[in-house]
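Input set for joint prediction.
Command: fold jointly, output tokens.
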Amino acid sequence: MEQGRIVAEVVEYVVKEIVDAPDDVQVEVVPDGKDAVVAEVRTAKRDMGRVIGRRGRVARAIRAVASAAGDEEGVAVDVEFLD
Amino acid sequence: MEWVEVQGKTVEIAVQAALEELGLSSPEEATIEILQEPKAGFLGIGGQEAIVKVTKRPPSKKRRRRRRRGRGGKHRGEAAGNEQQKPRKEERRKEPAMESKEQPKPDLEAQAAVARSFLEGLLEAFGLEGEVRTSIEDDVLSIAVVGDQTEALVGPKGSVMQAVLELTRTVIQRKTYGAPRMRIDIAGYGERRREALKIYSRKLAEKVLAEGGEIMLEPMNPADRKVVHDTIAEIEGVRSYSEGEEPHRSVIIAPEEEGTEEADDAE
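tokens >
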């Protein structure tokens, strides 16, 4: 099983639940050295604010949950939010 | 009309919290009333928090009132430096009685259903087996995620659990335009933690009784502080009070003063 599958599932699910335009959500999980991945999240521009949240609260929560997903498959996770 | 009343250390913090609660991204989209200006207290005692009422502005209506403090926008709030992890302290108070005509009570049942569906989906995305239960009491939505495997969603010191709560709140806001007060427990963590906190508080009380002096606990959120206060209140010869500003407010356990019947400043 490739590493990062659960991370991808979880991040994509959560982000799609939050945005206005779930069809525009793209999550790509790329390896980042040994046992580490970066989850790159892209959304429609107008949804980025929602995903980040005031003072970054939502983004922080997504990172925490993504890391928990990474723990399930033994990878460290970084989440990047890209326009 | 959708509105929330929020309390916070400063007007700015309260407004930001309120906007977030309403799912708005800018103060321009809302009417903001300052119901109470904050006043500084001494060591966090006797001070007054700011209370603001923020009403979602219908998109078409012309603005009625501009907030004088300009943008509370995307920047980090000035006092936001230490809000890491800890859930926001500002308490949102909905008072449907006051404006019940324009403000139908948010449908808690519907919000509970949104929470269940979101969390069931989350469990599925994680590939975990578990069950999501919700209950409503005193307008507070309580969520319990149960099942051995759901331990994965607790995290160090419950940090992942708090993140899950934050996301659930965000999704509810997003789908029902407003969110109730919520509580979450995953894999029985909250219950276990409360028990551990009670035992710990009793031990410290014994120490105070034996050695005198006061003991200050580490900073805790209001719910945890209440557990300590309640535990200490049952023990003869000690009292407890809180000191400091959120999110660094701490409980102090002290010997009971002779002759004074302290109605302890629990919160």
